[in-house]
Amino acid sequence: MQQNHPRVRIINEQLLSDNWYTLKKYTFSLLRRDGRWQEQSREAYDRGNGAVILLYNRGKRTVVLTRQFRFPIFLNGHDGFLIEAAAGLLDNASPEARIVAEAEEETGFRVSHVQKVFEAFMSPGSVTEKLYFFIAEYGDQQRSGEGGGIAEEGEDIEVVEIGFDQALQAIDQ
Protein backbone atom coordinates (compact mmCIF):
# COMPACT_ATOMS: atom_id res chain seq x y z
CA MET A 1 0.00 0.00 0.00
CA GLN A 2 1.27 3.45 -0.91
CA GLN A 3 1.45 5.64 2.19
CA ASN A 4 3.82 8.35 1.02
CA HIS A 5 1.93 10.92 -1.04
CA PRO A 6 1.99 14.72 -0.62
CA ARG A 7 -1.81 15.03 -1.03
CA VAL A 8 -2.91 12.04 1.10
CA ARG A 9 -2.42 11.44 4.82
CA ILE A 10 -3.71 8.16 6.23
CA ILE A 11 -5.04 8.78 9.73
CA ASN A 12 -6.45 5.38 10.67
CA GLU A 13 -6.71 1.86 9.24
CA GLN A 14 -9.25 -0.61 10.65
CA LEU A 15 -9.50 -4.28 9.63
CA LEU A 16 -13.17 -5.17 9.05
CA SER A 17 -12.78 -8.66 7.56
CA ASP A 18 -9.93 -11.04 6.82
CA ASN A 19 -11.95 -14.06 5.75
CA TRP A 20 -11.51 -14.68 2.03
CA TYR A 21 -9.70 -11.41 1.23
CA THR A 22 -9.26 -8.28 3.35
CA LEU A 23 -11.73 -5.47 3.85
CA LYS A 24 -10.40 -2.40 5.64
CA LYS A 25 -11.84 0.96 6.59
CA TYR A 26 -9.50 3.92 6.18
CA THR A 27 -9.76 7.43 7.52
CA PHE A 28 -7.54 9.85 5.63
CA SER A 29 -7.07 13.50 4.79
CA LEU A 30 -6.98 14.60 1.17
CA LEU A 31 -5.46 17.90 0.06
CA ARG A 32 -8.09 19.38 -2.23
CA ARG A 33 -7.27 21.46 -5.29
CA ASP A 34 -8.40 24.60 -3.42
CA GLY A 35 -5.64 24.01 -0.82
CA ARG A 36 -7.87 22.76 2.00
CA TRP A 37 -7.39 19.40 3.75
CA GLN A 38 -10.59 17.32 3.91
CA GLU A 39 -10.99 14.25 6.14
CA GLN A 40 -12.73 11.30 4.48
CA SER A 41 -13.51 7.68 5.29
CA ARG A 42 -13.57 4.81 2.77
CA GLU A 43 -13.66 1.02 2.79
CA ALA A 44 -11.26 -0.82 0.48
CA TYR A 45 -11.45 -4.48 -0.49
CA ASP A 46 -8.05 -6.04 -1.24
CA ARG A 47 -8.21 -9.29 -3.17
CA GLY A 48 -4.84 -9.02 -4.88
CA ASN A 49 -4.13 -8.27 -8.53
CA GLY A 50 -5.25 -10.46 -11.41
CA ALA A 51 -4.83 -11.25 -15.08
CA VAL A 52 -7.25 -12.07 -17.88
CA ILE A 53 -6.67 -13.51 -21.35
CA LEU A 54 -8.65 -13.67 -24.58
CA LEU A 55 -7.64 -16.73 -26.60
CA TYR A 56 -8.28 -16.45 -30.34
CA ASN A 57 -7.78 -18.63 -33.40
CA ARG A 58 -7.25 -16.52 -36.49
CA GLY A 59 -7.71 -19.40 -38.96
CA LYS A 60 -10.95 -20.74 -37.47
CA ARG A 61 -12.12 -17.21 -36.56
CA THR A 62 -12.99 -18.31 -33.01
CA VAL A 63 -12.37 -17.29 -29.42
CA VAL A 64 -12.27 -19.47 -26.31
CA LEU A 65 -14.25 -18.20 -23.35
CA THR A 66 -15.44 -19.72 -20.09
CA ARG A 67 -18.82 -20.01 -18.38
CA GLN A 68 -18.97 -20.26 -14.61
CA PHE A 69 -21.16 -19.35 -11.65
CA ARG A 70 -20.46 -16.01 -9.94
CA PHE A 71 -22.30 -15.72 -6.61
CA PRO A 72 -22.13 -11.90 -6.21
CA ILE A 73 -23.99 -11.30 -9.49
CA PHE A 74 -26.53 -13.95 -8.46
CA LEU A 75 -27.24 -11.74 -5.43
CA ASN A 76 -27.86 -8.86 -7.84
CA GLY A 77 -30.70 -10.56 -9.76
CA HIS A 78 -28.70 -12.40 -12.47
CA ASP A 79 -28.81 -16.21 -12.83
CA GLY A 80 -25.14 -16.14 -11.82
CA PHE A 81 -23.64 -17.82 -14.89
CA LEU A 82 -21.37 -15.53 -16.90
CA ILE A 83 -19.48 -16.04 -20.13
CA GLU A 84 -16.09 -14.43 -19.69
CA ALA A 85 -12.44 -14.63 -20.66
CA ALA A 86 -10.20 -16.91 -18.60
CA ALA A 87 -8.82 -15.04 -15.59
CA GLY A 88 -7.34 -15.44 -12.16
CA LEU A 89 -5.45 -13.84 -9.32
CA LEU A 90 -1.67 -13.48 -9.55
CA ASP A 91 -0.89 -15.13 -6.21
CA ASN A 92 2.63 -13.59 -6.12
CA ALA A 93 3.47 -14.73 -9.69
CA SER A 94 4.22 -12.40 -12.59
CA PRO A 95 1.13 -11.51 -14.65
CA GLU A 96 2.58 -13.33 -17.70
CA ALA A 97 3.42 -16.54 -15.85
CA ARG A 98 0.12 -16.62 -13.99
CA ILE A 99 -2.06 -16.06 -17.05
CA VAL A 100 -0.32 -18.86 -18.99
CA ALA A 101 -1.08 -21.25 -16.10
CA GLU A 102 -4.61 -19.91 -15.66
CA ALA A 103 -5.39 -20.31 -19.38
CA GLU A 104 -4.41 -23.97 -19.23
CA GLU A 105 -6.27 -24.64 -15.96
CA GLU A 106 -9.49 -23.03 -17.15
CA THR A 107 -9.55 -23.71 -20.91
CA GLY A 108 -7.26 -26.69 -21.42
CA PHE A 109 -5.08 -24.79 -23.92
CA ARG A 110 -1.34 -24.45 -23.29
CA VAL A 111 -0.35 -21.14 -24.86
CA SER A 112 3.30 -20.20 -25.17
CA HIS A 113 3.25 -16.59 -26.35
CA VAL A 114 1.00 -14.07 -24.60
CA GLN A 115 0.80 -10.40 -25.47
CA LYS A 116 -0.10 -7.83 -22.83
CA VAL A 117 -2.69 -5.40 -24.17
CA PHE A 118 -3.30 -3.08 -21.20
CA GLU A 119 -3.76 -2.78 -17.43
CA ALA A 120 -6.83 -1.38 -15.67
CA PHE A 121 -8.44 -0.90 -12.28
CA MET A 122 -11.90 -2.43 -12.63
CA SER A 123 -13.72 -0.95 -9.62
CA PRO A 124 -11.36 1.70 -8.23
CA GLY A 125 -13.90 3.26 -5.89
CA SER A 126 -13.82 0.25 -3.58
CA VAL A 127 -11.47 -2.51 -4.81
CA THR A 128 -7.65 -2.32 -4.93
CA GLU A 129 -7.29 -4.94 -7.72
CA LYS A 130 -5.39 -4.14 -10.90
CA LEU A 131 -6.08 -6.44 -13.88
CA TYR A 132 -3.52 -7.22 -16.58
CA PHE A 133 -5.20 -7.96 -19.93
CA PHE A 134 -3.59 -10.37 -22.40
CA ILE A 135 -4.34 -11.97 -25.75
CA ALA A 136 -2.88 -15.14 -27.23
CA GLU A 137 -3.45 -17.20 -30.33
CA TYR A 138 -4.36 -20.85 -29.79
CA GLY A 139 -4.61 -23.90 -32.01
CA ASP A 140 -6.13 -27.35 -31.59
CA GLN A 141 -2.62 -28.82 -31.27
CA GLN A 142 -2.17 -26.79 -28.06
CA ARG A 143 -4.96 -28.59 -26.23
CA SER A 144 -3.43 -30.20 -23.14
CA GLY A 145 -6.62 -31.20 -21.34
CA GLU A 146 -10.27 -30.45 -20.81
CA GLY A 147 -9.82 -27.29 -18.73
CA GLY A 148 -12.62 -26.62 -16.30
CA GLY A 149 -10.60 -25.12 -13.46
CA ILE A 150 -9.62 -26.63 -10.13
CA ALA A 151 -12.51 -28.42 -8.41
CA GLU A 152 -10.84 -28.14 -4.98
CA GLU A 153 -11.01 -24.35 -5.33
CA GLY A 154 -14.73 -24.52 -6.12
CA GLU A 155 -14.27 -24.02 -9.86
CA ASP A 156 -16.67 -25.72 -12.27
CA ILE A 157 -15.85 -24.04 -15.55
CA GLU A 158 -17.38 -24.81 -18.94
CA VAL A 159 -15.11 -24.07 -21.92
CA VAL A 160 -16.95 -22.19 -24.67
CA GLU A 161 -15.52 -21.82 -28.18
CA ILE A 162 -17.49 -19.41 -30.36
CA GLY A 163 -17.00 -17.62 -33.65
CA PHE A 164 -15.77 -14.04 -33.91
CA ASP A 165 -19.13 -12.87 -35.29
CA GLN A 166 -21.08 -14.48 -32.45
CA ALA A 167 -18.70 -12.99 -29.88
CA LEU A 168 -19.08 -9.52 -31.37
CA GLN A 169 -22.88 -9.88 -31.40
CA ALA A 170 -22.81 -10.85 -27.71
CA ILE A 171 -20.85 -7.68 -26.92
CA ASP A 172 -23.52 -5.60 -28.67
CA GLN A 173 -26.30 -7.09 -26.55
UniProtKB/TrEMBL annotation:
GO process terms (BP): nucleoside phosphate metabolic process; ribose phosphate metabolic process
Q: GO molecular function: any one?
A: metal ion binding
Q: Which cofactor does it need?
A: Mg(2+)
Q: Which reaction equations make up its catalytic activity?
A: GDP-alpha-D-mannose + H2O = alpha-D-mannose 1-phosphate + GMP + 2 H(+)
What's one GO-annotated cellular component? cytosol
Nudix hydrolase domain residues are 46-173
Q: Domain of life of the organism in this record? A: Bacteria
Task: Please tell me where Mg(2+) binds in this chain.
Answer: 87, 102, 106, 155
Keywords linked to the UniProt accession: Hydrolase, Magnesium, Metal-binding
Q: What CDD domains does UniProt report for this protein, alphabetically?
A: NUDIX_GDPMK (cd24157)
User: Which intervals of this chain are the motif Nudix box?
Assistant: 88-109
Quaternary structure and interacting proteins, as annotated: Homodimer.
Family to which this protein belongs = Belongs to the Nudix hydrolase family. NudK subfamily.
For this entry, the protein name equals GDP-mannose pyrophosphatase
